[in-house]
Amino acid sequence: MLKEALPKIITDQVPGPKAAAIIARRADAIPGAIKCVYPLVIDQGAGAMVADVDGNHFVDWVGGVGVLNIGYSHPEIVAAVQAQSEKYFHGMFNIVTHEGYVALAETMNAIVPVRGTEKMTFFANSGAEADENAVKIAKAFTKRPNIIVFSGAFHGRTMLTMTMTSKKAYAHGLGPFPDGVYRAQFPYLYRNPAGMSAADAIDYYTDSIYRVFEESSPADHVAAIVVEPLQGEGGFIPAPLEWIVAVRKICDEKGILLIADEVQTGFCRTGKMFASEYWQEVGAEPDIITTAKSIAAGLPLSAITARKEIMESVKGGTIGGTYCGNPVACAAALKVIEIMKRDRLDERACEISAIIMERFNRWQEDYAVIGDVRGLGAMVGIEFVKDRTTKEPDPQLVSAIVDEAAQNGLIIESAGVYGNVIRFLAPLVITDAQLQAGLDIFEKAIIKCV
């Protein structure tokens, strides 16, 4: 049974012959800009395991880049999707009301930790759409034109979210870009300025927001500050809670909305249903939360949630779209949330974290190429460097480790501003045996590639 299987490579190399043929066809038919990073052509997925077309078994620590917290092909999700698809596939919500949309919005309003008692949710199709809609809503509510984002941020590939995204490799040659997007410094504590203490760092990164007010946009022109609770593409860097408290205070003083981009951190990944629950515990909950990825087990769906007065400031016709809140995707999402609550996948994320952090921290002691290990729950990054003193990034080593791991049945992915971080995003339904098998492959890859 694939769900319980362990990684196993039966071909002489990967890709095997069948996969290699399909990858060659891909190169002829699909733009090269949509990169083929892994030598893998999926035939079947179950839990945290993937079988390729040649019969090789891989344990997947990427999970569709955070989409498969509940795993591949969960039978209850399959049943929910099948039941809905037998009724109807689509009914545009601006034309016909379907109960799944309403029920899912009610469910999200009950669990999403935004500020306020009366909450509202509407749906889009992707994380980028959710982030762009959140900015539109913030501008509608505040009547202000600008937003602040951060170094290391990733928010999507639409024209606005490319602008919001820090790494311009994602936007090369595609300008000009929208105005009104300004950037402050995210607290990347591992790479603080030399000699800076942890306490001073919080003030330093907070002050960078005030510098935006001074140098780029007056505070009373800023509609929202957009923050990832734990940066994904930026290198799996958690936002310190002391800094979040400071950002929340700035927003309250200046009439700015705080938006949490939980596209990757949401749905039990960080040990809570939403990472913003950690913010809520220190009285710094956001005004708007965007979610996507694991919301619907792989079907395109995203959500934007805020308190009622914010949502009702938006004029009719300015939000929504043809496929937003598709009935089949809503059916999947309702079942996802039910299963996550019932099976306590937030607690499972913490169990997984304890297992992997014990190994990762030991590796940091044993292998000088590991500069930092950080994360929240089961969302963890390992930063590789050429020298621990200079902290010079080593993206070439990371690339070699990723390739070597794939040859032995482990799928891992790089991240980070310098491409020198390996991220952990395995489905939360991964078994302990699969987790240990992946850790063993990973460590052997480090040893071989160093």
From TrEMBL:
The keyword Lyase does not apply. One of its GO terms (molecular function) is transaminase activity. It comes from the Bacteria. The keyword Transferase applies. PROSITE patterns: AA_TRANSFER_CLASS_3. Keywords: Aminotransferase, Pyridoxal phosphate, Transferase. CDD domains: OAT_like. Transmembrane segments: none annotated. Its cofactor is pyridoxal 5'-phosphate. Belongs to the class-III pyridoxal-phosphate-dependent aminotransferase family. This is Aminotransferase class III-fold pyridoxal phosphate-dependent enzyme. It comes from Acetobacterium malicum.
